[in-house]
Structures are given as structure tokens and as C-alpha cells.
Amino acid sequence: MHQTRWFGAPAAPGNLRNNAMLLPWAQEGGKETLVVQHQGTGKPWLTLQSIAAVPLQKPFAAGYQVTRTVTPIEQAVKGRYTRGDVLRVTLEVNASADMTWVVVSDPVPGGATILGTGLGRDSAIASSGEKRAGWAWPAFEERGFEAFRSYYEYVPKGTIKLEYTLRLNNVGEFALPPTRVEAMYAPEMFGEIPNAKLKVEAAK
Q1: What is the pLDDT of residue 127?
Q2: pTM, 2 dp
Q3: I need a labelling partner for 21 at 20 to 30 A (CA). Which of 8, 45, 59, 168 fits?
């Protein structure tokens, strides 16, 4: 039996916060019944949300649709990715409603360098053709080691497009997590697309 309280009361054991609670899934193949009872005055409401770590097999849209296109800018061997190749990634986001503080997150393969930071061994020429479209402009961009992230203070309903450039530095086969768009203060508004494995070969 699990209990929780409302309106700033101390959190009960197992609670995420004052009025949220994590309940375990039923055993595989089994079924369980959830019974909710309210004691006291007032008329609270209940929201149920299922959380499960399952691989994303196809694009999912819940307020945002996102597409991802990769175009070689410098490619040693046509049709194959090799170390040293430079790629242009285009992300197109279609928003179903106006929303504040939206983040677009796109993973990059291990060891790859996102160009445009201005640091050593960067290439201003390779990243000079990056384009943007739509009625939104990023408040901040994060060009990290594991992902490119663009934060928008306001994204209106409609389509926005953004691009970034990266250089492949490591040889190997890389499994990438999904590309994701999310309203930071309304996480139920999001969109995801799966990414195929990326194989990078040694230059010959």
C-alpha cells in the first residue's frame, strides 16, 4: 500500500515529490489492479503516466515532429564514412503549438568534433554554410562531446530548421540514442526519432 499527501506536506516514503509516486510494473505476463482512494476534503485529480526503458523503433511525435538529414561536406570515399570526413546535419522541427523554452538535442558519435566553437583545429570554412529557417532563434547552443543542443526561449507553432557541422575523428561502429525535441517545462510535449548505427572506417 502506498500513500501520499497534498499541499506541501512531507513526502511519504517512495515518493518522487510531495504529490507524485513511483509504482513498480507488474511481473512479466502478470496483471495488477490500481485502486485509488481519497480521504479528506477537496476534489483532487489523478494523472497516471507509464515510464519504461524501451528502444525507440520508429519516430514518435507528441507535440513535435522532427526529421534529421546528414549531408557529406568533405568525404574521402563516396558512400562510406571514414575518419576525417566532415558532415552537415540538418534538423527540421514542426511544432503543433507555441511553447517557451524548447531544447533540440542531437547525438554525435564518440570522438567526433562539432565545428563552430572557435577552438583549436576548428574550421570556420567547413561550418560557414550552416543555415537556419523559421521564426525562432536559439538563446544558447551547446556543442558538447556527446551531443549538439540548441535551446530556444520561444518556439512558435510551425516549422524551424537548424544545421550544424561535425568532423568524424574515431574509427568504429557507433550506436546513437534518439534525436529528441522537448519543451523543458512541459515534458509531455516532445518528439523523438531513432538513429541508425554509424560505421566509421579508417582512411586509406
Answers
A1: 60
A2: 0.74
A3: 59
Domains in the chain: boundaries: 60-200
The rounded distance, in Å, linking the Cα atoms of 139 and 162 is 13
Lowest average pLDDT, out of 9-18, 82-91, 115-124, goes to: 9-18
Fold for domain 60-200?
Answer: Immunoglobulin-like (2.60.40)
CB 145 within 8 A of CB 170: no
- Give the whole-number percent of the chain exceeding pLDDT 90: 59
Could you give the CA distance from residue 160 to residue 158 in angstroms, rounded to a whole number?
7
pLDDT of the residue at 23: 79
Q: How many CB atoms lie within 10 A of CB 23?
A: 10
DSSP string, 134-180: SS--EEEEEE-SSEEEEEEEEE-SEEEEEEEEEE----EEEPPPPEE
Q: What grid cell was written down for 172?
A: 568504429
Tell me the C-alpha to C-alpha distance, in Å, between residue 13 and each of 5, 22, 33: 11, 10, 21
Tell me the residue type at 87. Answer: L
**Per-residue b or e along 172-201, where b marks 16 or more CB atoms closer than 10 Å to that residue's CB:** eebebebbbbbbeeeeebbbbbebeebebb
CA 18 to chain centre: 27
d(CA 174, CA 109): 6
- pLDDT in the model for residue 167: 94
Q: Could you tell me which residues come within 8 angstroms of residue 136 by beta carbon, excluding any fewer than 6 positions away?
A: 102, 152, 154, 155, 156, 160
Amino acid (one-letter) located at 88: R
